[in-house]
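Reviewers of the previous submission asked for a worked example of the structure-prediction workflow described in the proposal, so we include one complete record here. The input consisted solely of the amino acid sequence. No template or homolog information was supplied to the procedure at any stage.
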Amino acid sequence: MVGKENMRTEDLNLCFEQLMMRGGSARSGGGGKVKMEAGVITDWKDIPMELLLQIISVVDDKTVIVASGVCRGWRDAICMGVTHLSFSWCTKNMNNLVLSLAPKFTKLQSLILRQDKAQLEDNAVETIANFCHDLQILDLSKSFKLSDCSLYALAHGCPNLSKLNISGCSAFSDVALEYLASHCRKLKVLNLCGCVETATDTALRAIGRYCNQLQSLNLGWCEYVSDDGVMSLAYGCPDLRTLDLCGCVRITDHSVIALATGCVHLRSLGLYYCQNITDRAMYSLTQVKNKPAMWASVKGRNDEDGLRTLNISQCTALTPSAVQAVCDTFPSLHTCSGRHSLIMSGCLSLTSVHCACAIQAHRTPNAFPHSAH
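From that input alone, the workflow returned the following structure tokens.
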């Protein structure tokens, strides 16, 4: 038996490489024996499954897939023990790879299929939904070839999804997303950036109705989103903490007011290029923070409560007084160098807005007069 205690990552990697090489030779007629230099393991089938999974945990996903083909014992152990996989390294034939492996890796909880060039097709996602029922995290970003069939399959086969990234999947309809939301009610993180036809007010109403645990939502450049959809989110998803509305040009102050009132845990808000936003929206943020009743349920209230990131770049209707009020209300918002969390690019009228530490840093050099000579 190979001792597992105090074994370094380098040792595990070396051991794995040796086993892979010699295991392959065995299958080619080498007699099935693996003669380790230390003389401890004499047959690759003697490797403890716990050790195999420990080795697997420190190598890349491509090696994991190769290892699963060494022998039936390894395949069964790996497929049952591996819960996280990424195929983002695969630049060719990802669809066929998923079709082949999804029926084997049935215990997957996290699957990353991010692509630079669209490869995935509906049949691959349908296979995932048919076999990977424990899936919680799925990244399908930039899967331009997928249709509504994929979302319908996921709705039925993967009800435990908590994190879904379909950013850039431009072919999905809002009806399909509405259906998914009604079945995947454990969603906490959802990325719909660039899904113009998908992220409509109809879909957002469904998300607000069914996905009450949602904490993070990216609606970047979903130009059909309006106040109606955002207000549905604000009242239906009270635990929302991160919301990106950049490029949602139809929203107005009503959206921000609803978020300020309904989402007291909101920590990050992106309003880039939302040019209908005015001072009224900014003041609503400060007023809600200052109402003790709204924050009474937040345990351990301190400076970290409230907004930590706010992007109002290109919101040209805002005035310095309103933005400064927001900055003063939330100490975690910074304009100082290296800590920019209040982002105001393209707002030339807001150059006078500064956080407390930036003002202090500006004053410090002049705090002590030079000694007389």
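The chain has two domains: 1-80, 81-296+303-354. We consider this example representative of the routine output the project will generate in years two and three.
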